[in-house]
Design a protein that fits this description.
By secondary structure, the chain is an alpha+beta fold. 30% of the residues lie in helices and 30% in strands. The protein is built from 3 helices and 6 strands; from the N terminus they run E-E-H-H-E-E-H-E-E. A 6-stranded antiparallel β-sheet has the order 1-2-3-4-6-5, covered by helices on one side. Strand 1 and strand 2 form a beta hairpin. The termini are far apart.
């Protein structure tokens, strides 16, 4: 089940949605679909954002005990993607070996987003944000 909350101001310069993502292997697919829908009419931004949400939601599902939350915010042309989970540990940018089958997700986020950050929560878990500059 996916819960959604959306806010839009009167002149549509700001839009924000938040989703409670399902657990399991289908979560990344839902994240891509929801991001594509949110960014309808902005195909240039959607492709990179879909890759990033897929990586972040996949990582959150692997790390979390419970379900993760994904939010998308478009304000003044800038897109912010945030994924919150309750899992321990913080993602870090590190080189992946050529033979590694995983470990490239944060490098992909780093390459595609204008900037990204990790905010640890005092009671455990974290929020990972990726910001895309206006095109």
């Amino acid at each position: 089940m996916i819960a959604m909350r959306a806010l839009r101001d009167a002149d549509r310069r700001t839009a924000r949605v938040e989703y409670l993502m399902p657990q399991g292997s289908g979560a990344a697919r839902w994240a891509r679909r929801l991001t594509r829908s949110f960014l309808a009419g902005r195909p240039g931004e959607a492709a990179d954002a879909e890759l990033v949400v897929s990586e972040l939601v996949t990582n959150a599902n692997r790390a979390a005990v419970g379900r993760c939350r994904m939010s998308l915010c478009l304000e003044a042309g800038e897109l912010t993607v945030a994924v919150q989970d309750d899992g321990p540990g913080l993602p870090a940018l590190k080189p992946a070996s050529e033979s590694a089958e995983s470990g490239r997700g944060i490098a992909l986020v780093h390459a595609l987003a204008h900037h990204w950050s990790v905010e640890p929560h005092p009671r455990g878990g974290k929020t990972v944000r990726a910001v895309f500059a206006p095109s």
